[in-house]
Amino acid sequence: MTAAPLMPEIDLDPHATADDVRAFFERDRLIAAYALADLDPHNVDQSRWWVARRGDDIVAAALLVEVLPFRPCFAMGEPQALAELFRNGMTEARLILATPPNGRLPIEASYRFERIDVMHRMVVRLDTFQPRVSHEITRLTPDHLDDVIDLYGNASRSYFTPLRLERELYFGVYSGRQLVAAAGTHVRSAATGIAAVGNVLTRLAFRNRGMATSVTSAVTEASLELHRDVVLNVRQDNTPAVSVYRRLGYEVHGPFVEGPAVRRAVWERLTKNLFGRTS
After folding, report:
1. How distant, in Å, are the alpha carbons of 3, 54, 257 from that of 187?
2. pLDDT of residue 12
3. I need a labelling partner for 40 at 20 to 30 A (CA). Which of 73, 78, 169, 273 fits?
4. Which of 202, 216, 208, 209 is nearest to 247 (CA)?
5. Which CA distances in Å does 19 have to 30, 44, 229?
6. How many angstroms separate the CA atoms of 199 and 153, rounded?
7. Residue 181: beta bridge partners?
8. How far apart are CA 187 and CA 223, in angstroms?
9. In angstroms, rounded to a whole number, what is the distance separating the alpha carbons of residues 240 and 250?
10. Beta strand pairing call for 251-263 and 94-99
11. Sign of the CA dihedral 34, 220, 209, 181?
């Protein structure tokens, strides 16, 4: 009997370029949509990445957006390569981690999720989009910054800046002089043809009037005029929201998991790797 050939060892590549990472994420561009947009030439200086190779082939990658205080990180790839990447590459103390389901266990060898949300990545394209706007819609610009912060709360002040409202696509509904509902793009990239819709919020007193549908529809329509693929995230157990997005023409592309995670202490990582314990 002939022994099976040995697989090449997994090595971390500190010299991988943005183009290398972009090509790898394009293997599932919809699941990796946020990361691909963050690799846009206009955004790439805000990000950092780690790459694992098996021989010459990239088999796992992770991308961290360093300019945001909550440290969002996306990772995908072979489980063994992800385990190596997070064990010996990534050393951030705290992250908001997103990964396809097969990435959860290898990442948990080095990071402990404090909470895990099981999510849908949904996508809409021009041929499936069904606009549903039943309110007067306002395009939100830097001139509306104070109203936006009033809606999302004072903690959003570091996130919503004049530059963000100028760069992204945000739309809202006003009641009198008060902004009562809004939605926008988290990130978008002309180079990759991707926009990610989110931050859908309606004031409590104005809910159940279809305003969230109207602002999401407006953002989606504007995004589709400029980008080939428009995606959004929603928890799988949020049935009402999933139904709204389906009526707009969004379809489920695939699952992923997301949540805040902290790096395990050295002794905990050793125990986890040796005995496979979970916590």
Report:
1. 49, 31, 19
2. 97
3. 78
4. 216
5. 17, 11, 20
6. 12
7. 173, 202
8. 11
9. 14
10. antiparallel
11. positive
Summarize pLDDT for 177-222 with one digit per residue, the tens. Answer: 999 999 999 999 999 999 999 999 999 999 999 999 999 999 999 9
Q: Please give the CATH number for the structural domain made up of 129-249.
A: 3.40.630.30
pLDDT digits (tens, 9 = 90+) for 127-145: 999 999 999 999 999 999 9
Q: Which two tokens stand for residue 84?
A: 């190596």
Domain ranges, ordered by start, for the chain: 10-119+257-275, 129-249
Amino acid identity of residue 216, one-letter, is T
- State the pLDDT confidence band at 102, using cuts at 50, 70 and 90: very high
- pLDDT category at 277 given cuts 50, 70, 90 is very low
Q: What's residue 278's pLDDT?
A: 44
Residues in the chain: 279
CA distances from 177 to 138, 150, 157, 180, 208 (A): 12, 12, 20, 9, 20
Strand, coil or helix: what is 62? strand
pTM of the model: 0.89
